[in-house]
């Protein structure tokens, strides 16, 4: 755990984290929505982080527009049944998003078809996208507008940094919105 975290302690990493934060902030300041999605443990992380924005993280602040595409079981099962599981996120994004919204995907491999498809759909819809990835980033690395790759092939280590990164974004947003009073 410490080896992975220590390897990510550099000016380059901090610059990348800042770029992601400012893209999230720009989206929210424009009254746009952040859409999240992932599979397995990453699906849980998207629900967790989306809820931190809608409810609150640590500080009392206004609710922020955030939706996890993993939470509508009727949509997920209907799309998987009527089309294909590879379209469960892209179909929802097409239905729910509007110009200047943001997609954040979380994937330890970056190679899941439904993640690749939703990133391609975001491009087609002219939405910005951020990918929290692991390993070498997989196919998602080349499709997303901004990405953060955790340099590990151990799923647990990748997920630990993804949730840290998500919590860091939440804390920075808390600070921004509560210091504006």
Cross-sheet strand order for the largest sheet: 2-1-3-4-5
3D shape? globular
Biggest sheet overview: 5 strands, parallel
Q: What level of helicity do the residues show?
A: 40-55%
| N- to C-terminal distance | 38 Å
Count the beta strands. Answer: 5
From the alpha carbons, calculate the radius of gyration and give it in angstroms.
16 Å
**Structural classification:** alpha/beta
Beta-strand content: 5-15%
Identify low-pLDDT runs: none
The overall average pLDDT, rounded, is 94
Number of helix segments? Answer: 8
SSE pattern, N- to C-terminal? HHEHEHHEHEHEH
Walkthrough of the structure:
The protein is built from 8 helices and 5 strands. A 5-stranded parallel β-sheet has the order 2-1-3-4-5, with helices on both faces. With 181 residues, the protein is an alpha/beta fold. Strand 1, helix 3 and strand 2 form a beta-alpha-beta unit.
Please describe the topology of this protein.
Layout: H1 2-7, H2 11-29, E1 34-38, H3 41-54, E2 66-68, H4 73-82, H5 88-96, E3 102-106, H6 113-124, E4 128-134, H7 140-143, E5 146-150, H8 155-178
Parallel strand pairs: 1-2, 1-3, 3-4, 4-5
Helix pairs in contact: 2-8, 3-8, 4-5, 5-6
């Amino acid at each position: 755990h410490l080896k992975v975290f220590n390897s990510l302690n550099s000016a380059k990493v901090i610059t990348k984290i800042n770029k992601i934060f400012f893209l999230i902030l720009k989206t929210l300041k424009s009254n746009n929505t952040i859409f999240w999605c992932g599979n397995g443990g990453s699906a849980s992380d998207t629900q967790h982080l989306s809820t931190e924005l809608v409810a609150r993280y640590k500080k009392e602040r206004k609710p922020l527009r955030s939706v996890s595409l993993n939470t509508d079981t009727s949509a997920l099962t209907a799309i998987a049944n009527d089309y294909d599981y590879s379209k469960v996120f892209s179909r929802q994004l097409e239905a729910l998003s509007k110009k200047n919204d943001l997609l954040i995907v979380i994937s330890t491999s970056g190679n899941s078809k439904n993640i690749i498809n939703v990133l391609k759909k975001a491009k087609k819809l002219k939405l910005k996208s951020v990918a929290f990835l692991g390993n070498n980033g997989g196919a998602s690395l080349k499709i997303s507008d901004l990405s953060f790759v955790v340099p590990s092939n151990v799923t647990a280590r990748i997920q630990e940094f993804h949730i840290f990164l998500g919590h860091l974004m939440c804390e920075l947003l808390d600070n921004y919105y509560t210091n504006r009073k």
